[in-house]
Amino acid sequence: MSFDRLVDAVVAWARRHGDEAEVFAQIGPTQDPPPDVAWVRSLGPGEFAERLRWADVVVSHAGMGTVISALVAGVPVVVMPRLGRRRETRNDHQVATAARLADRPGVTVAADTDELIDLLERRCWSAGSADPFASPTLIEAIHDFIRDTPPRRCRRRRRSGP
Questions:
Q1: If we measure between CA atoms, which residue out of 8, 102, 21 comes closest to residue 57?
Q2: Can you tell me the distance from the alpha carbon of 139 to that of 137, in angstroms, rounded to the nearest whole number?
Q3: pTM of the model
Q4: Mean pLDDT of each 10-residue bin along the chain, 162 residues long
Q5: How many structural domains comprise the chain?
Q6: CA 100/CA 3 separation, integer angstroms
Q7: Is residue 120 assigned to a domain?
Q8: Residue 130 near residue 71, CB atoms below 8 Å
Q9: Contact, 93 vs 81, CB < 8 A?
């Protein structure tokens, strides 16, 4: 699913700052590839991880895969959620995700393209990273759930026929 609004905003910023910033974009199935920045439609996990090694910041929709990957790599993320009312996604789940992420270290949320460009202009994003391992609280909750859930008995099915 393309996110032309985000791609267009980043490209507009890159046009003004091309001499001072190297921009690389994973654009998805957007209609018109940007002529002013290096881009690909899609990156595999290994290629994405390699790009993260060199990134100063990731600008993304509010997709958890991208956000988690960047934070685990120690790269700050500027997030602008896709909007259901603009038919960028099926509903506004990314708005809710962005709201939940807003207080996390390493995540800065832009509500719209004007705010996104302003954040990029001012190089204003939150530093931080994520632990690649589950928190002790989560591990304990999973342990308790497993311990307290009675085992289900499986019944053997009788084979019918010869």
A1: 21
A2: 6
A3: 0.75
A4: 84 85 86 84 92 91 88 91 76 86 89 92 74 67 75 67 62
A5: 1
A6: 21
A7: yes
A8: yes
A9: no
